[in-house]
Each structure stands twice: as structure tokens, then as C-alpha cells.
Amino acid sequence: METDEFAGMLRALKERSGHSYGVLAARLHTSTSTLHRYCNGAAVPTEYAPVERFARACGAKGEELVALHRHWIVADAARRREAGTAAPKPRPAPPAPAPATAPPAPAPAPGPVQPPGLPAAPRRRRVRALLGAVLAVVLVAAVSAFVLHGRGGPVALPPAAPDTPAAEPSATPTPSATPTATPTPSATPPAPAPAAPAPVEEAPAPFHVNVLTDNWGSPCGQWFLSARSPSQVAAPPDNPADIDSWAAAQQGVPGGHLRLQLTAQGAGATPVVLHAAYIQVVSTRPASKGNAYTPGAGCGGGLTPAAFAVDLDSSAPRATPVPGLDDTGKRTRSDFPYRVSATDPQVLDIDATTVSQDVSWYLDLVWSSGDRQGRLRVDDHGRPFRTTGIRDAAAWSHDGKSWSRTEPDL
């Protein structure tokens, strides 16, 4: 039922637009069979971004986009329920152990060992006398320290009488009930070590970001730098969705531009405000020599402008808002802050460029929601994004049969 309602909205948008499946597939850089499956309910897109691009290509705006997004959420949840595995059965609780017999009472701790032939009372008197002598020595030392280091400055003390022996520790250890349990008065207890602060676990952000590294769904103007020669590089795929895996197989790194599409969406009913995006550079080095390959020969490089441009060659790269095309085809520029929720996503197109450097980087989204605030790191599945310059690389395009030299359309 949920999937049928979602597919019905897609069909209504498609029929109202007057476009054929072939025209829409060419605009969205996908296959007609994929669009057929979406519109007849045979499949539900796993991400909302292709749904939004389809709707905008059909002329959907405002409330229609919001309603379509709600239906996609419900249909996607239904798809996940149908494809999900059964919940694991709870493990049976282990049998309760048989009651054990009460353990015998522990034997009383042994008392101090009495030296042979010495009664208990005299021994205690000897211990008290020795402790009193130690305390007297400590008090004398304390008074001496006060006289030597008091506010009035050092004072000369009379020399000790020649018949006063220096205090020496007794050679015979004195027995005690609990050895070293009670410190002597002369012992200074060490300062307690500062306790290590307990690790603070930051609560997850109340929104999530879906990242598409597919050059905004178009092979036009997309380049990859590889150390392989043209004879070692396979022909590019026809489906733009397969370009990233093809480039990885050729050990290719995004060259010149890395175009990202970020879709931020709230995870609950409370709105989230996105305040800024900060570019964090992990490393920068000169670009390696190699060959630059493009999977989009003959496109002319025409792409919708980005919402934000990032110059990775700058000493302090930042996400700068640039004029883009809105739903009416006008060139407008938008900037932070943005407000997102579970039913109101925000799409950010970012174009990160470099001419001659090899840059690893990621970005932080600064957010707040109610009395909470924080930063959400956006990267490439736990690794930094990477963009390398191709200014000094040999450029190649594929004509359907082989690779041939060309000029980069950057």
C-alpha cells in the first residue's frame, strides 16, 4: 500500500510533465528501466536524492516536494521491513545454579605474635613509650623548622650538648597489630593523584547527512588521475552510478573537481539549524604525475553551478556560496543558516577544486537544536575526501572503442 501510493505520485508527476521516460532518464543520467521500476512500484530508491531530482525534473515544487518526501519515507520503511531479516530469537536463560551450602565462617584473624616470656601488658606499655618518644622527636623537629623558616628569618641556635646522642632507628623491629596500617606522626601522607576525567560520550547529532560523490549525477566534466597507461584502463561504464567503482578499480583519484551532493535531514520532530560548514584540510602535497581520464566525453562540461565552491589551493579553504540555479531557472545564491527536519531536508551541492595539489580534507557542519549544539563531521565513509590537480597530466577520453588524447574541460 505505502509503495503503491509513492509510485502513484511519481507517475502523476511524470504524466503531468509531458516528458517521456527516455527524456527523463537522459536528464537524470540513469536508465529508463530504473525509472519504470520506480513509477510502477517494483522498486523504491534507497536514497531520497534521486527522488528529488526526478520530481524537480517533472516541475514539482514546494508542498509537492514535501508530500513526496513523506511518502518516500513511508515507502522506504516498508521496503526495509520486507527485506529485513527476522529478529533473532532470545537465548534461553541459563539454569539457576543449585543452592550451595553456607560457607564456613572465616577463621578470626591471628593476633600479634607474643614474644616468648613477655606478658601482653608490658609489651603494650613498651609500644606506647616508643611512640611517645617518636612524637617528641617530631615536635622538636617541627619547632626547629619554624624557628629556621619563620617570618623573622633564620635564628642561630645554640649547639647541641656533646652528650646528646643523635636519634637512630631501633635495630629491633617493634611488633604491631597491623603492620604499616597506622602511619607514624612523622610520616606526611602523599597528595592524592588527580583522578583522570571520565570520558564524555557525545550524544549523536539529531540529524544525518547522506553524501553522494557522483559528480551531481553526471559524468560531464568528471576526471580521475591514475598512474596507469591507457592500455591498462578499462572503458568507462554507461551507467553514471557505476563510475565511482570503475574509477576505484583503475586506482583513480578525483581530478580537478570533486563534486559532492550533501542531503541533510532531521532525525526527529525537533528542527535542526545548520549554521556553517568548515573545511578541515588533513594533508596537502604536490599532485603526482599521471594520466587524467574522463568518463563523459562529448558533454561539453555543462553542469548546474554549485551552491558552494571550495578552493583547496587556498591557504585557508572555505565553503563560499556561489550563484546557482533555483527551481525557476534563475541564478540565485543561498547561504547558511539552513533549517532541516524529518520532513524538510536540505540539499547542498559542493564543488571542491584544486589545480596542482593533492589534498585530503573533510568538512564539519556546525548545528544547534533547542539547547543542544555541536559539530558533525562529513567525510568519505570514515576517511577524508581526496582531490588532486591534473594541470600537468595527459588528458584522455574514450570514443567507445579506445582512449584518445583530448583537452580537459575544466
Account of the protein in words:
This protein is of the alpha+beta class and 410 residues long. It is 24% helix and 23% strand. Strands 1-4-12-7-8 form a 5-stranded mixed sheet, with no helix packed on it. A 5-stranded mixed sheet has the order 3-2-6-16-17, with no helix packed on it. Strands 5, 11, 13, 14 and 15 form a 5-stranded antiparallel sheet that branches. Strand 16 and strand 17 form a beta hairpin. The protein is globular, with a radius of gyration of 39 Å. The two termini are 47 Å apart. About 21% of the residues have low confidence.
Produce the secondary structure layout.
Layout: H1 2-17, H2 21-28, H3 32-39, H4 49-57, H5 62-83, H6 120-149, E1 207-212, E2 224-226, H7 243-249, E3 253-254, E4 257-266, E5 272-286, E6 291-294, E7 308-311, E8 319-321, E9 324-325, E10 331-332, E11 338-340, E12 346-353, E13 357-369, E14 372-378, E15 385-388, E16 394-398, E17 403-405
Parallel strand pairs: 6-16, 7-12
Antiparallel strand pairs: 1-4, 2-3, 2-6, 4-12, 5-11, 5-13, 7-8, 9-10, 13-14, 13-15, 16-17
